[in-house]
Automatic annotation (TrEMBL):
Pfam families: Methyltransf_25 (PF13649), Zn_ribbon_RlmA (PF21302). One of its GO terms (molecular function) is methyltransferase activity. It comes from Streptomyces iranensis. This is Methyltransferase type 11. GO terms for biological process: methylation. Residues 4-26 form the 23S rRNA (guanine(745)-N(1))-methyltransferase N-terminal domain. Keywords: Metal-binding, Methyltransferase, S-adenosyl-L-methionine, Transferase, Zinc.
Length: 264
């Protein structure tokens, strides 16, 4: 990179935005990109530490499963659909010699992620397209509540690398599903995930992280507004529903962390 311009070996050049991220999206932003309001809600909710158990469990699993450096090269830690960089920044603290690369389709997320950690580079890109990374560039790939393209994840991982996927369990946020009209998590989601990845990966570990979050009425609209529920809610109706809940409110955090090795 020179003078705020990123150049590839084929001679293409991409401007680095003044907020510190590179936009590699071809054409207009896609429908699935998180909006500025969703990203702000996520940043506030995560900053309060409510998902710290997920970040901690992910960092520990990454440390345990990451491969040794090959020829002195530790490989990158890549987060696909990484949002504000909260989870990747936590994982980077376990990998002092590695660079982190966060891809997200939302420029609002990428702006935040570029500031999340000194060793994170943020790129606006579509996870369903070819990923803008060389074959075998990554030793660890993270995918937390975000889309994934199995063939591309396999291509960017080195053969001894690890893919770590975090998915919600059916009892995640269970106290809020009825009360706030949230989307439900399907049963058998973990098995379906392993099936969908099976042409390229084999599962090597599966853990659950389950705890209780104590949320006030300020945190609840952030939680609803930061994810897919934001597309299905009207704010006045949500305010009425939240007003009927106790404050603070105990809410279940329940996710699965699954580790996969590439099939050789
Ligand atoms: C539920 S959020 C999770 C963010 C982050 N992993 C976290 O847990 O804080 C899903 C993220 O995926 C991003 N996303 C959605 N569709 C995408 C796509 N096609 N390619 C890349 N990112 C995408 C959204 O912009 C959003 O930041």
């Amino acid at each position: 990179m020179t003078d705020g311009v990123l150049r590839c070996l084929q001679g293409h050049s991409f401007d680095v935005a003044k907020q510190g991220y590179v936009n590699l999206l071809r054409g207009a932003a896609k429908f699935s990109a998180d909006t500025a309001a969703m990203v702000a809600a996520r940043a506030d909710f995560l900053a309060a530490g409510h998902y710290a158990p997920i970040a901690g469990a992910l960092a520990a699993l990454a440390r345990e499963k990451a491969p040794e450096a090959t020829g002195g090269d530790p490989g990158c830690v890549v987060d696909i659909g990484g949002g504000t960089g909260y989870h990747l920044a936590r994982v980077m603290s376990e990998f002092p010699d590695s660079e982190g690369i966060l891809l997200d389709i939302s420029k609002f997320a990428a702006r935040r992620a570029a500031r999340a950690h000194p060793r994170i580079s943020a790129v606006v890109a579509d996870a369903w397209d070819g990923l803008p990374l060389a074959d075998g560039a990554a030793s660890v790939v993270l995918n937390v509540f975000a889309p994934r393209n199995p063939a591309e994840l396999r291509r960017i991982l080195r053969p001894e690398g690890v893919l770590l996927v975090v998915t919600p369990r059916p009892d995640h946020l269970r106290e809020l599903v009825e009360a706030l009209g949230l989307l439900r998590v399907g049963e058998q989601k973990d098995e379906r995930l392993t099936d969908r990845l099976s042409a390229h990966f084999t599962e090597v570990a599966r853990e659950r992280s389950r705890s209780t979050m104590t949320l006030d009425h300020k945190a609840l609209p952030q939680l609803v507004g930061m994810g897919p529920n934001a597309w299905h809610q009207q704010s006045e109706r949500l305010e009425e529903r939240i007003a009927r809940l106790p404050e603070p409110c105990d809410v279940t955090l329940s996710v699965t962390l699954t580790a996969y090795r590439p099939l050789i």
